[in-house]
Design brief:
By secondary structure, the protein is of the alpha/beta class. Helix content is 47%, strand content 8%. α3 links the parallel β3 and β4. The chain binds 2-acetamido-2-deoxy-beta-D-glucopyranose (3 copies). Pfam families: Sulfotransfer_2.
Length: 373
Amino acid sequence: MLRKGLISSNVLLFIGALLFVIFMLYFEMHVLQLEGNNDKLASEVALIRAQLQANEKSSLRAPIIGGGAGGGPLIEIPDVDLKQRKDLVVIYNRVPKTGSTSFINVAYDLCRPNNYHVLHINVTGNMHVLSLANQARFAYNVSKWEAIKPALYHGHVAFVDFARFGISTHPVWINLIRRPLDRLVSYYYFLRYGDDFRPYLVRRKHGDKMTFDECVSKRQPDCHPDNMWLQVPFFCGHTAACWEPGNKWALDEAKRNLINHFLLVGVTEEMEDFIRMLEVTLPTFFQGASKHYLSSKKSHLRKTVQKAPPSSSTVKKIQESKVWQMEQELYDFALAQFHFMRKRTLGQSATNRSSQFTTERSQQFMYEKIRPK
Ligand SMILES: *[C@@H]1O[C@H](CO)[C@@H](O)[C@H](O)[C@H]1NC(C)=O
Ligand SMILES: *[C@@H]1O[C@H](CO)[C@@H](O)[C@H](O)[C@H]1NC(C)=O
Ligand SMILES: *[C@@H]1O[C@H](CO)[C@@H](O)[C@H](O)[C@H]1NC(C)=O
């Protein structure tokens, strides 16, 4: 009994050892196979990296490398070269007396080095609204005129919604707005004294020495608050209600269009940051613009001559008007949006006036969990 048991336990031991060896062999093979996979993976990663580097050669900056929030690995994205957008059309529907001339001169200076076209939209009779047929021609021509692209169009024309004309390629709209009372005062003196841009040109009200304060106290039409109703309709567009001073729907529509159809709306008072933002977002056109704007004398161009600031009682009187309040509401809305985007877009030098160089925050997005593998 004892011997029999001893033998069977030896046999069991032997079988156990054999199983262990087989298992070890299998395990070893598996590890070797994994290592093989690993080598393959490493060589594929190297290949992808080489491709990424080739793509990145002309790009702006290196993307972030880091751990993903979900714990998985993050895939580096090659920085997309925004300068390559050769089909871009930008429309700047400038509002009169917002400092637009200084800005557009930068665009003219850069069109040759940056290789794009600038076109002025000259609307007959200084009208800001086009006929329906003209809107259709304009929208069609702008979208289909390939030879002129990339192109920047500018002119005193209200917003045109290209989608209404069955055109699927939309231009990028940009604009600049100014504090409504400042704009009105500037326009008032501009008609009387002209500016330093074309000093010898005789303006409509040349010779009239009445100050803005006198005009307000005498209730003259030139300084009537309704004259401020211009930035709202420029964003609102080609609808009848847009051009009714004080129309509430027009203000709401202007805000909606500003958000839905305009890439960027800056303010005259912060032109430098507007140009910095354009430089990092639309480098096709604005690469080098900040430096150019600051180093050339463009930032001081076209100042209206003889501008006395309005008295506090004049300001108070104007601020009582519904039109001022609504125009100011649009301005404040645009300013808040501009500051919101600026904070998220520009790096340190946005607030450093002595720095001439545009800095951009590094890349803020990347891809992960890509399936199937
Ligand atoms: C627009 O065209 C008209 C007619 O050719 C011309 O007299 C006018 O000066 C132009 N306007 C501007 C702002 O260049
Ligand atoms: C757009 O208008 C310009 C000027 O009239 C013209 O030269 C050009 O051929 C037009 N382009 C298209 C695609 O219609
Ligand atoms: C602003 O920029 C200049 C030049 O780039 C630098 O020397 C200076 O230290 C900066 N100032 C601040 C407050 O960051």
